[in-house]
């Protein structure tokens, strides 16, 4: 299959966007803090052409399914096509002067879904890129990221932050993307040549909508309210006044965020200083905080992290929104084949991905 087989003509536009792995900085984006993801090779590609019959026709290769619609009403029971409708809705809402057009669309994706590597952001960013190109609306990468976030927050109903959309829209493969989520300033940082990151799939499917993601969001907003700060991102560790927070659970959630921001800054410093052992240590601390204070890990994921370290990784952690999905490990290049041989005894090659 492909666009031409499905629609019997060539696409007018082709755009794509990559998935990401977050190296460090979890749930710090919507709390005005720092994150440091990097792009993966997995990507989502959109092909489209004008549809003259006044309908939207969308084929998803992943779901092997075609959807036809002519309004942007969200389905009652969440459906993959909601993301597409949401992108159209937000795009036309943002560009009110543009006359509505209909499209044939073909979606190809190599991104494993629901595993914490931002498949939905890559989907939204690639669709918005395609519409931006088709209508020549000349929105820059940051603007497209903001619109993609609106799709998730306002249309789908997930309270997610801006990390995934920003890196998917602006990031460069092979560079760390350090982002200050408050002012959206970013730096592209090179990786030292002897470092290697590797993903292991826990195969626990995570769905942001049905997971506890929104609960964690609300708990952090309670912490901000009780501490009387606009964002937890601005709270320094030594000024974190737990006495002001009424619930022990909220203290733990907020402590994760306050300490995680510090770790992201240290992690960037480690990259710049080529200090692989410090970066590894920070990943381990980040995972412990994510697992114990934020309670966003699972037994399977904790096992992968522990085993990866026992097999020689300098650091390992759960990446993304939490509650399953991928882990990321940091290994010295020279030791990689040794680490791989050992970890491969626990997890098959299909579950291990070199970044
Ligand atoms: C998901 C969200 C991001 C971010 C991470 C957790 O990937 O889309 O905005 O909050 O979870 O760090």
Q: What does it look like?
A:
The chain is α+β, with helices and mostly antiparallel strands. It folds into two domains: about 5-190, Ribosomal Protein S5, domain 2, CATH 3.30.230; about 195-355, GHMP kinase, C-terminal domain (Alpha-Beta Plaits, 2-Layer Sandwich). Helices cover about 40% and strands about 20% of the residues. The chain contains ten helices and eleven strands. The protein has helices at about 5, 80-95, 120-135, 140-155, 165-170, 215-225, 250-270, 275-295, 300-310, 335-345, and strands at about 15-25, 35-50, 55-60, 65-70, 105-110, 175-180, 185-190, 195-200, 315-320, 325-330, 350-355. The protein starts with a helix and ends with a strand. The mean pLDDT is about 95. The structure holds alpha-D-galactopyranose (GLA). Alpha-D-galactopyranose binds near residues 26, 118, 161 and 163. Alpha-D-galactopyranose binds next to α5.
Which ions, cofactors or small ligands are bound in this entry?
Answer: alpha-D-galactopyranose
CA-based gyration radius: 21 Å
Based on DSSP secondary structure assignment, what is the total number of beta strands? Answer: 11
Order of helices and strands: HEEEEHEHHHEEEHHHHEEHE
Helix content: 25-40%
Overall pLDDT score:
96
Largest sheet: 7 strands, mixed
What is the highest CATH level, the class of the largest domain? Alpha Beta
Structural class assignment = alpha+beta
Tell me the span between the first and last alpha carbons: 28 Å
CATH fold-level assignment of the largest domain: Ribosomal Protein S5, domain 2
| Principal-axes shape call | globular
Q: What is the second-level CATH architecture of the largest domain?
A: 2-Layer Sandwich
Count of all domains:
2
Sequence stretches where pLDDT stays below 50 over 5 or more residues: none
The DSSP helix count reads 10
